[in-house]
Amino acid sequence: MRDEAEIKGHRRTYVGAMPGKLVQAFKEVEVENPVIMLDEIDKLGQSFQGDPASALLEVLDPEQNVDFLDHYLDVRMDLSKVLFICTANTLDSIPGPLLDRMEQIRLSGYIAEEKLAIAKHHLWPKLLKRDNLTKKRISLSDAALKQVIEGYAREAGVRQLEKQLHRIVRKSAVKLLEEEAETVKISVKNLEEFLGAPIFRKEKVLTGEGVVTGLAWTSMGGATLPIEAGKVHSLDRGFKLTGKLGEVMQESANIAYSYTLGHLQEYGADADFFDSAFVHLHVPEGATPKDGPSAGVTMTTALLSLAKHHAIDRPLAMTGELTLTGQVLPVGGIREKVIAARRSDIFELILPDANKRDYEELPDYLKEGMTVHFAKRYRDVANVVFGR
Q: Which ranges carry the Lon proteolytic domain (predicted)?
């Protein structure tokens, strides 16, 4: 939408003048308190014809929309009884004053169990019906469906999942016609015949001295993020970062390095270790951009593990940001991070104490079998990782 006349209506002096979309909606539903959905509000345009975002201020502001004026009708309307629902993928392109008049409800992505239920009860029957096929002719096992979700469709929604399921239906239909078979059964064993090799592989948990598993939020949900610290040589002192890290993550690394330098003796490491050590901190998958304030605790643990010559020998993952004084700050995306840990068979986590409420709000089937330690200061993290 580029023209504010679509909201406010055209003045009747113009040829082809029409009332605005809101008046048209009222005419269609014939009630004064409808639910009006403004889809993809972050895609509003702005041109010489006008600024629809400014026109929407009058529509969505509860102080003004009692007397909304449509230019075509030239009669004031009461929009205060309307429930407006707006959707957006990103908040960055929504003007600040407009965003201020809305209550924000963030919807996190579907987890694997939810996708499984949606695919089983909605997507799969819909696709079969669209292609005039029955469940008796094409059967998809639950294990194969889980493999489709984990290996081919890890995005937050289910659009990619629907595309992959439709590929299976199309190829099955061809198989039924060409081979004149009565039925086609799709299982984990023959899934690759229909979809090819999996796009996503199961994340491996790396172990060793100076290697710690972190947790990251991504647009596709959550992921485990191994962080590696290594001593390159002992000729001079230095610190090097690689892994295509953003500015925020580089700051986290520098804070982690400074904190570790200042507290080596406190955590039972050699106080002179970094004096003659050139340390390299690396986050694998270097071509993938990474940023966000949630890796401070993980980076500090990797550096401390290197200094203490203490490898973490159990599946353990952590997330949290660190300050120079050792306080562990809360982070976002706890739901997605817990899912990522479960996917990699990690059932012991360290989370910031301030995120305890976020964890407690998770469904029981996500918390089942998990051991979670909540940390207020880095001392709490070190106690869990290295023992008291």
A: 206-388
pLDDT band at 297 (very low <50, low <70, confident <90, very high): very high
* 211-386: CATH class: alpha beta
The pLDDT value recorded for residue 113 is 84
3-state secondary structure of 328: strand
Q: Among residues 281, 363, 348, 361, which one has the least CA distance to residue 318?
A: 348
**pLDDT of amino acid 388:** 65
Burial grade of 47 (CB within 10 A; 0-12, 13-18, 19 or more):
exposed
CA distances from 48 to 3, 21, 56, 242 (A): 9, 20, 17, 46
Q: Residue 385: which of 213, 205, 257 has the closest Cα?
A: 213
- Catalytic residues, which ones? 294, 337
136-141 own/partner pairs: CB under 8 Å, 24+ apart = 136/183, 137/176, 137/182, 137/183, 137/184, 138/168, 138/169, 138/172, 138/173, 138/176, 138/183, 138/184, 138/186, 139/183, 139/184, 139/185, 139/186, 140/165, 140/168, 140/186, 141/185, 141/186, 141/187, 141/188
Distance CA 311, CA 386 (A): 9
Q: What is the pLDDT averaged over residues 4-13?
A: 78
In angstroms, the CA 191 to CA 275 distance is 55
> What would the pLDDT profile of 98-125 be if each residue is shown by its tens digit?
888 889 988 877 878 889 999 999 999 9
Write the CATH number of the domain with boundaries 5-100.
3.40.50.300
- Mean pLDDT calculated for residue range 322-327: 91
Neighbours of 323 (CB within 10 A): 13
Mean pLDDT for all residues in the chain: 86
What is the domain partition of the chain in residue ranges? Answer: 5-100, 112-195, 211-386
Q: Does position 218 have pLDDT exceeding 80, yes or no?
A: no
CATH number of 112-195: 1.10.8.60
- Beta bridge partners of residue 185, listed in sequence order: 139
Six token digits for residue 220: 């596709």
